[in-house]
Amino acid sequence: MDQKTQNEAFNKYIKQLFESSSWKERAIAVKNIGQLREGRATNLLARALKIENDPVVINQIIEAMGEIRDPKATMLIINFLKKELKEPEESQDKTRLFIIIESLMKIGDKRALEHLGILLESCHSDIRKLTEKAFECIDPLWKENIEKNEVLKRI
Asked: CA Rg, the chain, in Å?
């Protein structure tokens, strides 16, 4: 896709995201925005997150941010992780947790590790395994770094 065509598609999807009354159309628009992998979409997606109420569209926005891989999205996604973790574990939205973990893994920002750490002790083995995979992707030496921090705390 040439730059002009990509710009036209980008503008069309952004317009659809902010103007459509259909959650399905907004979700499709966000998916398409993520597939374009344009960093310039991060701020617009952040703005959309503030006004979006549909859980499917919110999940699509988080997923698109992961596809774009812009570290500016890290803390926005972590805020959704924090909200989810405030709920009792049995009430947490597992789909959203998977999307959050995968998105943070794709972005690869080490700031996410501190917040993902609590999921290493999840009762759900799939969440634990995906979190460990995220740690491996973001910081292959994470286990050694945790051990070093534990030693430093004792000193």
From this structure: 17
Who contacts 61 (Cβ-Cβ below 8 Å, separation ≥6)? 30, 45, 48, 49, 52
Q: Give CA–CA dist 139/122, Å, rounded.
A: 20
pTM of the full structure: 0.90
Spell out the domain ranges in the chain. Answer: 3-154
- CATH value of 3-154 in 1.25.10.10, 3.90.70.10, 1.10.3470.10, 1.20.5.110: 1.25.10.10
Q: How confident is the model at residue 89 (pLDDT cuts 50, 70, 90)?
A: confident
Mean pLDDT of the chain: 93
Give the number of C-alpha atoms closer than 13 A to the C-alpha of residue 115, restricted to the C-beta side.
22
- C-alpha to C-alpha distance for 134 and 8, rounded to whole angstroms: 34
Nearest to 68 by CA among 101, 28, 108, 95: 108
Q: Give the residue from 29, 37, 25, 119 showing the smallest Cα distance to 70.
A: 37
